[in-house]
Amino acid sequence: MSRHFKGKHILHGNQFSQQDLEEIMAVATDFERKVTSNEIPLLMKGRILATLFFEPSTRTRLSFESSMHRLGGAVISVASAETSSAAKGETLADTARTVSQYADVIVIRHPRIGSAQEAAEAASIPVLNAGDGAGQHPTQAILDVYTIKKEVGTLGDITVCLVGDLKYGRTVHALVELLRLYHTRLIFVSPSSLKMPQEITKNLREKGMTVTETDDLKEALKSADVLYVTRIQKERFSNLSDYEKIKGSYVISDELLRDLKKEPVIMHPLPRVDEITTDVDTRPGAAYFRQVRNGIFVRMALLAMVTGAV
Ligand code: NCD
């Protein structure tokens, strides 16, 4: 059923059709059912995943590694640029060629936009982009869409409000490409210096999407079915005083949500710093830790599909 993903790289949110997404989500749903009933589908027994993380990560790396283990596969990893041959000046292409001899699939995170594409061109095995600088983060976007579908029931006739650092946030850059396939209504809420890159917004509008840009979170909240909160990406600022000026611009608190007529589903790719106060965590709409769990099923699906194991 999923044969056409075999050998494919996962690099950018714009590479998918709606049918692709539905197919990935169907496989993920099947894995969710199996994992929840304590079945271990040993589809990847004898196969090896290499995780190459040249930027900090807790969730994405452990999520991929956990997914591979849940499929019965093994994991090898490079945990930082400092401890790998990148520190000796090896190119990413040579690293990708080398790792292709050791593993069946590569997951890479790197600070440079386009790095995953570069690795994919040199590799002879599938490469999954786990974040290329301020570029893309397609596997996160797929688990986000999977979460919205589970929480709200549909991706179509709803309004998703993205708030925070829309300029440097790679998760939202990838997510809007997927929501485009469902014509989801979008509201972008950010400080004016952290707006969604113009070429992305322009492209969405050209494709017929309803996109509203504002800095007024309270107003946007009135019509949001989903509130997708992002961290201000401190590490992408060249000038830290610019970061200091806008950090804490939008804080989602219990008080802010309490009087809403309809509470949105609240999502966040995590890590959070101060954008969502912990008193929100017990609200029924707080979906961010459920979102983390969904990541396992979606990544199991992606690993199994690109290696042809399913
Ligand atoms: C995000 C990332 O690394 O882009 N985290 C993640 O992968 N879940 C978001 C962030 O770091 O703010």
Structural summary, described in words:
Helix 2 crosses helix 11 (288-306). The longest helix is centred in the N-terminal third of the chain and has 19 residues, at 18-36. This protein starts with 17 loop residues before the first helix and ends with a helix. Strand 1 (48-53), helix 2 and strand 2 (74-78) form a beta-alpha-beta unit. The strands form two sheets. Strands 7-6-5-8-9 form a five-stranded parallel β-sheet. It has a four-stranded parallel β-sheet with strand order 2-1-3-4. The chain has helices at residues 18-36, 59-70, 92-99, 115-122, 138-152, 170-180, 198-206, 217-221, 240-246, 254-258, 288-306; strands spanning 48-53, 74-78, 105-110, 127-132, 159-163, 185-189, 211-214, 226-229, 265-267. It contains eleven helices and nine strands. With 310 residues, it is of the alpha/beta class. It is globular. It binds N-carbamoyl-L-aspartate. N-carbamoyl-L-aspartate (NCD) is lined by residues 59-60, 131, 137, 140, 170-171, 231, 233, 269-270. Residues 59-60, 131, 137, 140, 170-171, 231, 233, 269-270 line the site of N-carbamoyl-L-aspartate.
Features:
five-stranded parallel beta sheet; 9 strands; alpha/beta; binds N-carbamoyl-L-aspartate; four-stranded parallel beta sheet; 310 residues; 14% strand
Give the helix level as a range of percent.
Answer: 25-40%
Tell me the strand order in the biggest sheet: 7-6-5-8-9
Number of extended strands: 9
How many helix segments?
A: 11
- Average pLDDT reading: 96
Principal-axis shape: globular
Bound molecules: N-carbamoyl-L-aspartate
Evaluate the radius of gyration: 19 Å
- The SSE string, one letter per element, is HEHEHEHEHEHEHEHEHHEH
> Pairing-aware structural class of the strands and helices?
alpha/beta
Runs in which pLDDT lies below 50 for 5 or more consecutive residues are none
Please summarize the sheet with the most strands: 5 strands, parallel
